[in-house]
Amino acid sequence: MYAQSASMQSRIEYYDVSAHDLGQLRQQLLAQGPQKQGNRYSIAAQYRLNWTPKVQIRNERCEALAPELQLSADLLMPRWISQSKADFSVQQSWLSYIAAAQLYHQNITHLIEQSADRFIQQTRGLSAKECHQLEALINAKGRAALASAQQKVRTYQRQTAYGQTLGLILP
Predict the structure, then answer these.
(1) One matching Pfam family, short form (predicted)?
(2) Among the four residues 13, 92, 113, 144, which has the most C-beta atoms within 10 Å?
(3) Which residue from 168, 65, 53 is spatially nearest to 107, judged by alpha carbons?
(4) Half-sphere exposure of 140 toward its Cβ, with a 13 Å CA cutoff?
(5) Could you read off the pLDDT of 75-104 as tens digits, one per residue?
(6) Distance between CA 162 and CA 154 in Å, rounded?
(7) How far apart are CA 27 and CA 154, in angstroms?
(8) Tens-place pLDDT, residues 15-72
(9) Are 146 and 115 in contact, with CB atoms under 8 Å apart?
(10) How far apart (Å, rounded) are the C-alpha atoms in residues 11 and 160?
(11) Is the pTM of this model over 0.85?
């Protein structure tokens, strides 16, 4: 569950790979997979948490409203288009790999949503004499929520060996 004033956009995109065996499949993934910081990966994800402070003047004070949040979670995964030509056991390994990737992505997305919820809760009831001061405070809390989300994700990545304990191991 994430904050009511947040909009979550989750998107999964695919790139096609074609191979008749696991050796060819691994080669295709390493040749065509998404590139990040000069390295190729079979799967890549990008997560964003953006916010806009919302305030109102009431009784000569500036009061915080729930900030407007935009959350996005994008996943780029391979689609093995010649999968049906592979042995059944290889197909099962592939499907387990894809399921583990989706679970890993879902769990990271949930961690970010939790940080967004906490951010919303922390802005409730805030007020200041000047709106620019209150907006600065809300932005500071937003940066703290972002840092908290990043730390939670790093911890989760270490705990799961970047998804390997979930089965996120290339077949």
Answers:
(1) DUF922
(2) 113
(3) 168
(4) 7
(5) 999 999 999 999 999 999 999 999 999 999
(6) 9
(7) 28
(8) 999 998 888 999 999 899 999 989 999 999 999 999 999 999 999 999 999 999 999 9
(9) yes
(10) 23
(11) yes
Contact between residue 77 and residue 29 where contact means Cβ atoms under 8 Å apart: no
Shortest CA distance to 62 belongs to which of 5, 125, 154, 144?
125
Q: Which amino acid is at 119?
A: F
> How many angstroms separate the most distant Cα atoms in the chain?
72
- Listed by start position, the domains of the chain span 6-166
Q: Look up residue 88 and give its two tokens.
A: 């059944």
H or E element, residue 55 = strand 44-58
Structural tokens at position 38: 């000069």
Contact predicate 31/17, CB 8 Å: no
Q: Report yes or no: 167 and 96 within 8 Å, Cβ to Cβ.
A: yes
Which residues have a Cβ under 8 Å from the Cβ of 1 and sit 6 or more positions away?
A: 113, 117
21 token code pair:
């065996």
Residue found under tokens 């009431």: 58
